[in-house]
Amino acid sequence: MDTGLLIALLNPTIALALGAAFFVLWAHQRHRPYLAVLALSYCASAPGFLFQYFTLPIGMVLTKLVSNICFAIAGCCLSGAIVARYGRKVPYVAIAVLAGGGLASFCWFLFVAPDLTWRILAMNFAFGGLSLLVCAELRPVRNNGPTEKILFVLSLLSGLNFFVRTLIVVIAHGPFTSYDGFYGSSYWTTALLSHALLSLLIALCLFTAAALDVMKALKAETHTDPLSGLLNRRGFEERAAQLLRHCAVARFPVALVLADLDHFKALNDVHGHAAGDRVIADFAAKLRSATGARGAAGRIGGEEFAVLLPLSDLAAARLFAEAVRTLYSAGGIDGLPADTKVTASFGVAARSGEEALEPLMRRADEALYKAKKNGRDSVRLSYERPEALFVPEPSRAG
């Protein structure tokens, strides 16, 4: 097998291997359709490269058209998948205009005014435009890990490769008048090698992004309570500790609200565990809606919940707790008799100084105990200061 054939088979082999890998990933993560689109992209590019080197029975001219249609499909799918992976709205119209314009120009210089050099420029400029479009879409992406920065750079390099490399080679060694000797030219060699390198780098980056997605999902599962959809105790403690650190640095006030469903065991005994689960889910939904994105809400026990509220003092946290208590006690629960009233008790404590989570929760729990002891369906506050802050001054002699 000669060197030219080896180089010609390099890209199809890489593309098929990457396409198969992305397909396997998608088969195990059906909720991430961008992986299937990536698989289609790489699989479509494989026949594109093969049909550049091998001629189909339909003739050389139509074979080149089929090859470039495959390239256009691959480019559109890759661009759309990368943009979709990072939560951006896929610019279908812009992608279609760039790919369609490239193919239309290619057809013009294939059938109407045959010119190999202009066909090369038309398709390379179209793919360069797609690469820079991806660049523009990734530029505003923030806090999504390192992969978007790497893909931004790779997309920029890919765009420069399609524009700058193509122009330099065509000016230096062109114009190309026919396919005789074309596949041994510097243009074709640099095109194959640069495409192989960029394809591998982009695919590795996307594999890393997919792995990070899996790790993030696993972490979310280990930190989330499946029934309520809130953070579990471990997740809440980690998130709350993080918020307390940030608020300490910024010197923002913080308050903690603990809530406990009243007579929950009796409700379970009378109406069954399925009804108890609905009660927990309903209360969690109201708590999550009231908390919003500003704080951390978690289910830290069977029927016990906690909310950490940054930028809230004791008065603001009391208003929050009273609002949730009133909203919850006034509403009914699906599946329970209309006359069944479900209530909750609340304990509220405001952070003092740089108080840690544990003593803050202990004070809020003491306030919650008072609410339960004094009739339930109420809010009680902790006016105590943490013991750690009461350090007596050393006595002075004389």
UniProtKB/TrEMBL annotation:
Transmembrane segments: 6-27, 34-53, 65-83, 90-111, 117-138, 150-172, 192-212
EC class (word): transferase
One Pfam family here: GGDEF
Highest taxon, organism lineage: Bacteria
InterPro entries with a match to the protein in the record: Diguanylate_Cyclase, GGDEF_dom, Nucleotide_cyclase, Rev_trsase/Diguanyl_cyclase
Keywords: Membrane, Nucleotidyltransferase, Transferase, Transmembrane, Transmembrane helix
EC number: 2.7.7.65
Catalytic activity: 2 GTP = 3',3'-c-di-GMP + 2 diphosphate
GO-annotated molecular function: diguanylate cyclase activity
Domain GGDEF: residue ranges: 252-384
Stated name of the protein: diguanylate cyclase
